[in-house]
Amino acid sequence: xxxxxxxxxxxxxxxxxxxxxxxxxxxxxxxxxxxxxxxxxxxxxxxxxxxxxxxxxxxxxxxxxxxxxxxxxxxxxxxxxxxxxxxxxxxxxxxxxxxxxxxxxxxxxxxxxxxxxxxxxxxxxxxxxxxxxxxxxxxxxxxxxxxxxxxxxxxxxxxxxxxxxxxxxxxxxxxxxxxxxxxxxxxxxxxxxxxxxxxxxxxxxxxxxxxxxxxxxxxxxxxxxxxxxxxxxxxxxxxxxxxxxxxxxxxxxxxxxxxxxxxxxxxxxxxxxxxxxxxxxxxxxxxxxxxxxxxxxxxxxxxxxxxxxxxxxxxxxxx
Length: 319
Description:
Layout: H1 2-8, H2 10-29, E1 31-36, H3 42-57, E2 61-66, H4 71-83, E3 88-91, H5 100-108, E4 113-116, E5 128-132, H6 134-149, E6 153-159, H7 165-178, E7 184-191, H8 196-209, E8 215-218, H9 221-233, E9 240-242, H10 248-255, E10 262-264, H11 267-284, E11 292-295, E12 298-300
Parallel strand pairs: 1-2, 1-3, 3-4, 4-5, 5-11, 6-7, 6-8, 8-9
Antiparallel strand pairs: 10-12
Helix pairs in contact: 1-2, 3-11, 4-5, 6-7, 8-9
Subcellular location: Cell envelope
Pfam family, one: Peripla_BP_4
GO molecular function, one term: carbohydrate binding
């Protein structure tokens, strides 16, 4: 019946047959598992959406899982991916140390892993580790922060999760710039674990103990949003806040005169690149790239925030 209709009504037949063809192609190429932290954080949601979209474009089925930064849950998800016969795993991991064993387990089962955003502490186990150049990005953010602070005054730093290597790298990048200015004094430094709720609570407590603070520099945008909400609630909207990630929420805050700046790391493109490398590796046995790859970050402030959308910066309009 399909062939007859195709001969006489080709346009309609193609429309009818395409979904079946795509499904068959996906079954033929197999399954790609995509494992990230919670999608409550728009950064991680953008990773999952980007990876899933690219995998489907390339003809794969997808399995999208969330580990909530729980190493035990992540380990179970690797077992699921292995049991389902995944062709590859795209991963934003739940800890630099805790992730080594499941990635090795997948490798032993013949399933290559392609890491994004966060590195693990071993080389030669994952095929790719594609991460933002967190140190370079942190230096961009710190330079902007120093300028906004006028090179002086008391400030606070909110750190990410201690088990996440990105938290330490960003903090080091911040301080390698800020510490060059002796009139900038850090009066508090606490972890808010990448969380907006914790960012709010920590900022509220720090503000009570240090009412004279002039600025807050944060390891990610969700903590920056929490800190800004606490400052707004306290009537302290003159305090300078800088984040890191390039989320739409912080973009909107910048455009509304709230948070002053953030640093964009290209989550969506990074995830798509991992899928493309997985596809190339599955087809040819090589990605053509080194295991560890860095993607540079971009400063976002009032000058370019309007061009930011879902962790990607649109090209400036040209006349």
